[in-house]
Design brief:
Blueprint (H helix, E strand, L loop, with lengths): L21 H19 L26 H4 L5 H13 L4 H29 L4 H17 L4 H5 L4 H18 L8 H15 L8 H11 L6 H5 L1 H17 L1 H6 L12 H20 L21 H17 L5 H14 L17 H17 L5 H26 L2 H11 L4 H13 L3 H14 L4 H13 L3 H14 L3 H13 L3 H14 L4 H13 L3 H14 L4 H15 L1
Helix pairs in contact: 1-5, 1-17, 4-5, 4-7, 5-16, 5-17, 7-8, 8-11, 9-15, 13-14, 14-15, 15-16, 18-19, 19-20, 19-21, 20-21, 21-22, 22-23, 23-24, 23-25, 24-25, 25-26, 25-27, 26-27
């Protein structure tokens, strides 16, 4: 590759076609899609997992409601896609996974266009551009570290937002004039807004545009000045987004400056180490985990944070020094830092490491890789063979990881093995056992989780229900009553009523259910359980009334419908 002066032509002149024939490119793309289908096939019918339980598609009856009911969210476009999946099949996860994979495939296609344009601007040999861009896109598509963002239904926020951000970046890169027209600016603006409406971390996109305009215009600000039509609206949207989400930034319990577990500067010290974890996972995707146990660096000297910081700064200094000799690789490093900044800088997030956060920033690492490969003194055919071998290895590894994501028990056993001292994997594995009615194993895992972290009300409720599955009524009530003290709610009190009712303790059951109704008269299960008590004590008319009250609140409540039909049948006899 020749050393050339950096500059970005507004509309590159037509060039003679080089490289493989068009049909070979289409064949390679088709082969990549087939590989993707094979790699993700094990997870296509995987269950709802982890944070999926808090998303609208797991709320009873919501699939039958209008789209407007789904859009009351900081991420309305994301919710709209979940609504589409739920319309196809609310209970079969295949359609949810299908949309995840389809979005991922589109993001990969856009990655190909982005990398190909940047290879052109870096003056990489024409005969290698499509090959290297294809390799980058295939690795984006099939790298094992991407599995969490694709196989995990809640991971759609990453893939959808990044797909839309890549679309905006593609429009930006392929504009016909150096100075963007209002039409180009409008297209970029709409796509950027759509990305933000899917997930907030795409707020980094304007910074990537600024870096790109500065870097590929001979390290000058003329490109930035020329594209004010893009930057002015994007800045307005960005400021508006900060204002709209200011409550989340300052008061949220799982992310933001209001986080109690650690401060913003302690999170920054921790991320000085975490960024190297992401780079390591890109180079060698071993030891992938759904829930990393990653310690916080309380000071810059704690747990090697200073070494991580010094290394990041040293590489940044080297990238700046060698920016003209290795423009694409150095640009890739700074792009990686920019795209990781929303989640891996100073804004605290409760989980310091999550593999899906690399989904956006992997673009920068892929640029470093293709720059290095472009400089190898090998024939194009040998480069193609090596690239194919790399993609095949990535595909096999991704399928193995998709197998893990295909089953709750497999996933959480794997996670417990890698994070044995973290309470949440044990709790999630316990819940997986509970769902399989393996209550004895569930109780064991809840006990392990309780020994690792202060016990909260939610864990106590689940633990109590596992004891209930073993018909250990007193143990179940002990856990549920402790949960009611920590966090009284209609849910907890209704479960106490349910357990007492199963044991034939009718008065205790009715007392608990009356307390649940006082706390929240719109909690449907309270009336279902009270209806069951009335039914079992021969009060059929009262039971029917309770079931109808439950259905008035929650028309799709299956238990209420089932028991109402039984009670009505008994009344007719």
């Amino acid at each position: 590759m020749k050393k050339t002066k950096n500059r970005v032509p507004a509309a590159p002149p037509p060039v003679a076609r080089t490289g493989p024939p068009q049909w070979q490119m289409w064949a390679a793309g088709a082969a990549a899609l087939v590989a993707m289908v094979w790699a993700y096939a094990p997870a296509m019918s995987g269950p709802f997992l982890f944070d999926d339980a808090f998303l609208p598609f797991t709320v009873s009856g919501l699939a039958q409601r209008t789209l407007a009911d789904w859009l009351h969210s900081p991420r309305p476009l994301l919710m709209a896609t979940y609504w589409m999946s739920a319309q196809l099949s609310p209970n079969d996860t295949w359609w949810f996974h299908f949309m995840n994979v389809a979005i991922h495939a589109m993001a990969s296609g856009l990655a190909f266009l982005i990398v190909r344009r940047l290879l052109q601007w870096a003056a990489v040999e024409k005969s290698k551009r499509n090959l290297l861009a294809g390799l980058a896109a295939a690795l984006f598509l099939l790298h094992p570290v991407q599995t969490e963002a694709v196989a995990y239904l809640a991971g759609r926020s990453e893939s959808l937002s990044v797909m839309l951000a890549f679309a905006a970046f593609t429009v930006f890169l392929y504009r016909r004039q150096a100075a963007a027209t209002w039409g180009t600016a409008a297209a970029v603006f709409v796509l950027f807004g759509a990305a933000l409406a899917s997930k907030e971390q795409t707020i980094a996109l304007p910074a990537l545009f600024l870096l790109t305009d500065y870097w590929w215009n001979d390290f000058s600000f003329r490109g930035i000045r020329a594209n004010w039509k893009i930057y002015a609206p994007m800045a307005a949207v960005g400021l508006a987004g900060v204002w709209v989400f200011r409550g989340l930034i300052t008061n949220a319990t799982s992310a933001g400056f209001g986080l109690k577990e650690f401060t913003w500067y302690q999170y920054f010290f921790t991320q000085c180490r975490a960024l190297w974890v992401y780079i390591g996972l890109f180079l060698l995707p071993a030891n992938l985990s759904a829930d990393w146990d990653f310690a916080i660096s309380r000071t810059v000297l704690d747990k090697g944070a200073i070494a991580g910081l010094v290394a990041l700064v040293a590489v940044a200094a080297a990238a700046w020094h060698w920016r003209r000799r290795f423009p694409l690789a150095c640009y890739g490093y700074f792009a990686f830092l920019v795209l990781m900044a929303p989640t891996s800088s100073i804004l605290p997030i409760k989980d310091p490491v999550a593999e899906r956060r690399l989904y956006f920033a992997i673009l920068g690492l892929l640029l470093i890789l293709v720059d290095a490969l472009a400089r190898l003194r090998v024939e194009r055919r040998a480069l193609a063979v090596g690239a194919a071998a790399l993609v095949v290895a990535a595909t096999v590894a991704t399928r193995a990881r998709a197998e893990v994501w295909s089953d709750a028990e497999l996933l959480w056993k794997d996670t417990v093995a890698k994070s044995p001292d973290k309470w949440r994997p044990h709790s999630q594995l316990a819940y997986a056992y509970y769902a399989e009615q393996r209550y004895d194993l569930a109780v064991q895992e809840y006990r392990k989780a309780a020994a690792l972290d202060p016990v909260d009300a939610d864990l106590l409720v689940d633990w109590g229900l596992a004891y209930d599955g073993l018909n250990r009524t007193d143990d179940a009530l002990e856990k549920l009553q402790k949960a009611a003290v920590i966090k009284p709610s209609a849910h907890v009190l209704s479960q106490i009523g349910m357990v007492n009712g199963k044991a034939g303790r009718w008065n205790e059951a009715l007392v608990a259910l009356a307390a649940a109704e006082r706390l929240d008269p719109n909690f449907a299960d309270t009336y279902v359980y009270r209806g069951i008590v009335y039914f079992k004590t021969g009060q059929l008319l009262n039971a029917v009334q309770e079931y109808r009250r439950a259905l008035a609140i929650e028309p799709a409540n299956e238990q209420a419908s089932k028991y109402l039909a039984i009670a009505m049948q008994q009344l007719r006899k």
